[in-house]
Amino acid sequence: MPLNVNRVLLSAAVNILLFSAIIFAQSPQPAEPAGEPKPTNQPASKTPAEVVRERIANARAQLAVRNHTSAIFELENIRKETGDLAIHSVVNVMLMHGYLEQGNYRKAKEFLEAHFTDYKNKNEAASTLYPPIAGQVIKGARSQAERYRALGLQIADRNLPADALNDVEQMRSLLELVVDQAKETSKDETCAPLALPLLEEATSARSLYSRDEYDARRWRDELADAREQLAAQRSTVMTAVAGSPTQPQSVELVPVQTVDSNAAAPKAAPPVQQAVASRPASPEPDATDPTKLAEGAKQADAPPVAEASSASANGPIEVGSLVPFATNKPQPVYPAAARQVRAAGVVRVEVVIDEDGQVAEVQNTVGHTMLQAAARDAIMKWRFRPFKRDGQPVRATGFVNFNFSL
Q: What is the model's pLDDT at position 38?
C-alpha cells in the first residue's frame, strides 16, 4: 500500500503544535513586578487640636444663629474632654455668653460661683479663668441694656411684661453677685489689681439697671467709692515700686534777692524763694560791736542769686502738655487682659525730653495699673521738636495723657 507522505507530514505538524500548546499552558507565567501602590483620595487624619478647633468654630456658629442649646451642649462636652487651660479660657467665655443669651441665669450663676470659689482659694488655673468669665457677665449685661433701649423699653419701667421684669431682675442679681465677689477679693493685696477694676466695671453696669431714683443714687455712690478705691490702690502700687520713702530733710524758705535793675541780666525775674537745708542759725552780731555789725551787713548784702540762676539756666524747661510739640505720635496697643476686664481710663506719663527731641526718661506714670505698661511703651516711641533756650537745645519735662476707652 503506497505511503501518503503529505498526510503524514500534516499529521506530524498538527501533533507538534498541539504538544507545544499544552507545554506552554502548563508552564508558570512570570509575575508582574510589584509597583508603587496607587494613590488614594482618602483625607489625611486630623490632629486632636484641629478637631477641637473645628468643634469650637462650629459651636461659635451655632451661637451666632441663636441655636444656643446645641452650642452649649457642644461646649460643655469640650470642657469635659480636654484639660488645656487656653481652650478652657475660650470655651468658658462662650459658655457664659450662651447662658446669658439663652436666659439660663441659674446655670450662669452656678458657673460663675464655681470659678470664683477656685479663684478665692488661690487656684492657679482659676486666676486665669475667673476674670474673663466675670467680664463676660458685665459685657452681656451692657448688651442686654442696649437691646432694651434699641427696642424703646425702659429698664426701670414697672409696667413691663412679666417675662421682661423677671429677666431684668435676674440680670440685676447676677451683676450684684459680681460686685460682691469683687469687693471680697479686693481685700486681698494680690487680687486687688484685678478686683478693683472689675468692681468699677460691675458697679457701672449695675447702675444701668436702676429700679428708681433712689436705687440710681445708691449705685452712683457705689461707683464713686469704687473709683476712689481704685485711685488709692494705684497710688499704693506706685509707692511700692518707688521703694520705701526716704525721710525728707527739714528745710526752711529763705528769700532770694532779685537782681538790681542796673545789673546786666537777660530777663527780669520776679522774687522767688529757694529751699535750702536747715542749718544752725548764725548768732546775731552784737549791736555794741561795730566790727560785727559790718560783717553782718556784708553777709546780708551778698545776693545768693548766682547759684539759683545757674541751676535754672542749666536745668530742663518745664513745658506741661507735650502733645502740641510732638512730631511722631504712635498710639498705644490696648492690652488684651485689660480689654477682657474692660479696664479703661486716662493714663498720664511724665517724661524728660533730651536735646534731640527723644524721650530720655519716664519719670512717673499715673493711671490704671493694667494700662501703664502700654502707655510707657508708646511714649518711648514718640518724637518731639527740640526745645531751645537762647538758641541752644536743652532738655524739657512734661507729660502726655493717653485715654484708653472701649
A: 55
Confidence at residue 32, expressed as pLDDT on a 0 to 100 scale: 55
Interacting residues of 118 by C-beta distance below 8 A, sequence separation 6+: 125, 126, 129, 130
Give the DSSP H/E element, type plus range, for residue 318. strand 317-321
The DSSP code sequence of 343-399 is --EEEEEEEEE-TTSBEEEEEEEES-HHHHHHHHHHHTT-EEPPEEETTEEE-EEEE
**To which residue does cell 538758641 refer?**
391
Number of domains in the chain: 2
CATH number of the domain at 359, please. Answer: 3.30.2420.10
Query: Is residue 11 situated within a structural domain?
Result: no
Mean pLDDT by 10 residues, the chain (406 residues): 63 75 65 54 74 92 92 92 88 93 93 91 83 93 93 91 94 94 87 87 92 90 85 50 40 37 41 41 46 44 42 75 91 84 89 93 90 92 91 92 88
Give the structural domain span for 176.
Answer: 49-241
* CA distances from residue 375 to 42, 242, 336, 337, 350 in whole angstroms, order as listed: 53, 18, 14, 15, 11
Q: Tell whether 55 and 187 lie within a shared domain.
A: yes
Nearest one of 346, 388, 383, 392 to 368, comparing CA atoms: 346
Do 72 and 197 share a domain, yes or no?
yes
Length of the chain equals: 406
Q: Name, in order, each residue with C-beta under 8 angstroms of 196's C-beta and a sequence gap of 6 or more.
A: 182, 186, 226, 229, 230, 233
397 close to 379: Cβ distance less than 8 angstroms: no
Rounded Cα gap, residues 181 and 198, in angstroms: 10
**CB 103, CB 171: distance < 8 Å:** no
| Residue type present at position 36 | E
Whole-angstrom Cα distance, residue 234 to residue 225? 14
CA gap 97, 135 in Å, rounded: 11
Other C-beta atoms closer than 10 Å to the C-beta of 364 total 11
DSSP H or E stretch at residue 317:
strand 317-321
Q: How far apart are CA 137 and CA 209, in angstroms?
A: 14
Nearest to 397 by CA among 366, 340, 354, 345: 354
